[in-house]
Design a protein that fits this description.
Layout: H1 2-17, H2 19-65, H3 84-89
The protein binds zinc ion.
Zinc ion binds next to loops.
Length: about 90
Amino acid sequence: MGFLARLLLPRKVRRARHPGRTAKRAVTPKLVKKVRRALHPIDNAKYSAERSIATSLRSGKEKRKAPINPVYMHGNCSVRHRTAEAAARCRNG
Ligand SMILES: [Zn+2]
């Protein structure tokens, strides 16, 4: 271990003398990479969640906007009458 200690100690001392440079070079890129890696999946999850919420809201609005009107059909008539009277008056059958 004595050999390794002699090799490593001078480097540590050099780094300590120039903390600004080494900190920027050595620490920042690693941190940025880690942050980017961590943020991407979160962003995707957030985006998909927002999208699913948006689609659910949209579908709800569509249901409210286009209510299913009652349709009166009879016999062989292919016309979808809006009222029972119309179906009764229809000539097609
Ligand atoms: Zn009819």
